[in-house]
Design a protein that fits this description.
Length: 375
């Protein structure tokens, strides 16, 4: 299997390079546009006329955290509800049963997880675990609106735990990652009850959830990074067998230069209401998983999309994994419907391709892991 994987890796990288260069060119153009907008604001302030002051004041208000957060957060709630009732649920598996709203932290009743299992699962056979971390710009998102993806994974035989880990700014960094490890600790405590294999698990998520999943991968494989966090001791050293990352954010500072809609408010909320560039250098480095990847990083399946301004971050991340010799499989969706976090809905052709890739990736790792155990 190793030779087959390496051959595929080499073929994929050649296709990857051309798309990577095109995305980087687009990002640089956007950076210049952002600089131009900032220069306009500076010019208005220097004019020192009543008209310029009024215009500058209006521009400043537009970027104030509280106003933007209120607007964006309200829109998120509406989109989550509409999405959950419509396109987010396209392709949901009906072969799967769900147990929802299980509290995993006795000290915080806001936090919960949902469990998804095949209706015909043989409970006497220990199930492999897939933990899903939803996206939503760190300020929103629910496990219930990601069930098209999570039930399709569960349909393939996995015990899926989908986490609600809290919204920023109330749960600003590092609270989210700490909550995720509390959920992993809860799963370890209940492994016998559900007959699940917590020795090695898979983790995945989309957008902000992809970012947090990549952090989990770094925590599991980089001792220096692990030591930076106050993690649940039950799960601090949890081994991760593989990652499935859908349009994630791997470099926070570069994300600000992509022109992605509302990225400034998302990152500010993640930082507790302070703009990311104003945070200490150590903090800015810590929140970007790309800075902490090592050669021991888990095998990874990455997805990106043609019409997603954050796609360049996935290309950067995949490129680094290639350079480190980490096994990575990358699916870059193309076409009009190839938008940010597209695989959440399973009603699209590209989403079904992504799911097939996810299943094949997970199955390949399970085969490798089971073979190693047999020896």
């Amino acid at each position: 299997m190793e030779n087959k994987l390496m051959s595929k890796l080499q073929q994929n990288r050649e296709l990857f390079k051309a798309k990577y260069e095109a995305l980087e060119h687009r990002r640089v153009a956007l950076v210049e546009k952002i600089k131009s907008d900032r220069a306009e604001l500076d010019a208005l302030l220097k004019e020192n006329t009543a008209k310029a002051k009024r215009k500058a004041k209006k521009l400043k208000k537009k970027v104030s955290f509280n106003l933007r957060y209120g607007y964006v957060e309200g829109g998120h709630v509406k989109n989550e509800i509409i999405g959950m009732l419509t396109f987010y649920s396209w392709g949901r598996s009906h072969k799967v049963k769900a147990i929802r709203h299980i509290k995993f932290d006795d000290n915080d009743q806001n936090l919960y997880l949902n469990i998804y299992q095949h209706k015909k699962r043989d409970i006497n056979v220990k199930a492999k675990v897939f933990v899903y971390i939803h996206g939503g710009g760190w300020i929103g998102g629910w496990p219930e609106s990601r069930e098209a993806f999570t039930t399709k994974v569960a349909e393939a035989g996995y015990f899926v735990a989908s986490l609600y880990y809290g919204d920023a700014p109330q749960y600003s960094h590092p609270k989210m990652i700490e909550n995720i490890y509390k959920a992993l600790g809860w799963l370890k405590d209940h492994a016998e009850e559900y007959n699940i294999d917590m020795d090695n698990i898979f983790v995945g998520g989309e957008s902000a959830g992809g970012h947090l999943s990549a952090m989990v991968g770094c925590i599991a494989t980089n001792p220096a990074y692990n030591a930076m966090f106050d993690l649940d001791e039950r799960s601090r050293h949890q081994k991760i067998e593989g990652l499935v990352l859908n349009c994630g954010v791997y470099d926070m500072e570069k994300a600000l230069e992509t022109g992605f809609h509302n990225i400034n408010i998302y990152t500010e909320a993640f930082c507790g209401g302070t703009k990311l560039p104003e945070m200490p250098e150590d903090f800015r480095k810590q929140v970007s998983p790309i800075n902490w990847v090592t050669a021991d990083f888990p095998p990874t399946y990455c997805m990106s999309a043609e019409n997603d301004k954050l796609a360049v971050l996935t290309f950067d991340f995949v490129d680094k994994l290639y350079d480190l010799g980490v096994y990575v499989d990358h699916y870059h969706a193309e076409g009009k419907l190839a938008v940010h976090a597209f695989a959440v809905s399973q009603g699209l052709k590209i989403s079904k391709i992504a799911m097939q890739g996810t299943r094949e990736f997970l199955a390949g790792l399970c085969e490798t892991f089971d073979g190693a155990e047999a020896k």
